[in-house]
Specification:
Blueprint lengths: L4 E2 L9 H9 L19 H18 L5 E6 L2 H13 L4 E6 L2 H10 L4 E7 L23 E4 L1 E2 L4 E2 L11 E4 L16 E5 L10 E6 L17 H6 L9 H17 L1 H22 L4 E2 L10 E5 L3 H13 L2 E2 L10 E4 L6 H18 L1
Parallel strand pairs: 1-13, 3-4, 3-5, 5-8, 8-9
Antiparallel strand pairs: 2-10, 6-7, 9-10, 11-12, 12-14
Length: 360
């Protein structure tokens, strides 16, 4: 069967070139006579893989030397607990709740610290980013937390919140490597890689060294201490070796493509094709306030549940798959990550035009 255009929110589309390379190396990685799946994480071959992956990521994001790059497990959701467990000093943290994942992080933090919800867009089904220029930041806040791109709701911070000097922690799972980022504005950035970077099973955390505590509450499991992972260069125990190997290949692909400036340009171009059509369509409409639209996740609806279902079914038959929206928004959602080619977005818009003509 021919490859489909996969609009899944995650696990998501990967660059075809990367998949072909991995396939070529499946039985014999660079003359080792084995697959990376079978390789000891302590071997010289794997040591090169993980070190190159880290260096390529540092190059792509211009990560300063005083930030640690950690390859972890447990997905972004495990960070919901690790962040408050590790960064708890005064036992207070401020959360801006702009979607389901920020909400879950906020709820999880309540188990470990006094978590304050300092802003939210829940009143309008998370369809916008609240004004974060003058928030009631707690004097004792150990950090301020955001989810930067909301996968489900299709919103993205265009301006980072004014944290009034408090450290900023950001979940960047669904906008990871989609555009240049100034790492120095954050105390920590992290993301599950299964949306824009690699296969599920890896989370990458980029943490300023002075944020990593020498000691934490003795109830915090050894494995869930950033210091444990940082001191061992992500090799305290067996890491998700194969996933990291694929991430490394994606980093090399991004470098070859021209880096994050080039990705931003491509992503803006792709998103414009879809948003321009939504803005002119009589049948489909986007669900997000224009100035807060994500380049990565585009939710849209017809306003008729039966018609939405018909659209998703017919699109699937046409090789445009995983377009069903999240249950909390309904309708459709097209996730158009780095690896989604422009031709995929054009094919989607062509199909939407045809569907509109037939169902108007």
């Amino acid at each position: 069967m021919a490859r489909v255009y996969n609009f899944s929110a995650g696990p998501a589309v990967l660059p075809e070139e990367v998949l072909k390379e991995a396939a070529d190396e499946m039985l014999d990685y660079k003359g080792t006579g084995m697959s990376v799946m079978e390789m000891s994480h302590r071997s010289a071959a794997y040591d090169t893989i993980i070190k190159e992956a880290e260096q390529d990521l540092r190059d792509l994001m211009n990560i300063p030397d005083n930030y640690k790059v950690l390859f972890l497990q447990g997905g972004a959701s495990q960070q919901f607990a690790m962040v408050p467990m590790n960064f708890k000093k005064n036992g207070v943290a401020d959360y801006i709740v702009t979607g389901q994942w920020a909400k879950k992080a906020f709820q999880e933090a309540q188990k470990y610290v006094k978590a304050n919800k300092v802003a939210t867009s829940e009143d309008e089904t998370f369809s916008y980013i609240p004004d974060c220029s003058d928030l009631p930041i707690d004097d004792d806040a150990d950090y301020v937390y955001i989810c930067e791109n909301n996968t489900i709701y299709g919103t993205k911070y265009k301006t980072l919140p004014n944290t009034k000097g408090k450290p900023l922690v950001s979940d960047i799972s669904s906008c990871f490597l989609s555009e240049p980022v100034d790492v120095t504005k954050y105390a920590m950035l992290y993301g599950g890689v299964q949306k824009n970077v690699g296969p599920a099973g890896v989370v990458i955390a980029i943490i300023r060294e002075d944020m990593i505590p020498e000691s934490v509450d003795e109830s915090v499991p050894t494995m869930l201490q950033y210091k444990t992972q940082a001191d061992a260069d992500s090799l305290y125990n067996t890491p998700p070796c194969y996933g990291i190997y694929i991430c490394g290949k994606v980093f090399k692909w991004l470098k070859k493509m021209g880096g994050l400036e080039e990705m931003k340009k491509r992503n803006e171009e792709k998103a414009k094709i879809l948003y321009d059509f939504l803005d002119s369509s009589k049948l489909f409409k986007g669900t997000v306030r224009k100035e807060d639209r994500s380049l990565m996740n585009v939710p849209f609806v017809t306003g008729d549940k039966d018609l939405d279902a018909k659209f998703v079914a017919e699109a699937t038959k046409a090789g445009l798959v995983n377009l069903k929206g999240h249950r909390t928004v309904g309708g459709m959602r097209a996730s158009i990550y780095n690896a989604m080619p422009k031709a995929g977005v054009e094919a989607l818009v062509d199909f939407m035009k045809k569907f509109e003509a037939e169902n108007a």
